[in-house]
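Appendix B. Chain record.
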Amino acid sequence: MKKIKSIPNPNAISKLEFEFIQSSDPQISQYQEKKDIYKGRMISMSDSFYLKLNNYLKCNPTEGNRSSFMVRIVSEYIDKKQNNI
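Structure tokens predicted for this chain:
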């Protein structure tokens, strides 16, 4: 039985290339961390606020997920505004 030779991917980068990229440009890792930030954003907010919000919700799991937390905070804000008028 003949073994089928695998065709190497010409676009794949080697381990050495990957390590070189990681060590030579620290902004690449920062970009990779922020790359998925825009996915699923409901409203416009700065990256720093988005990261603070995610960290807060990680540390306080009883607050719920991001969307339910934001809806609750906004509804409390609206209630306070209407009660002050």
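Further analysis of this model is presented in Appendix C.
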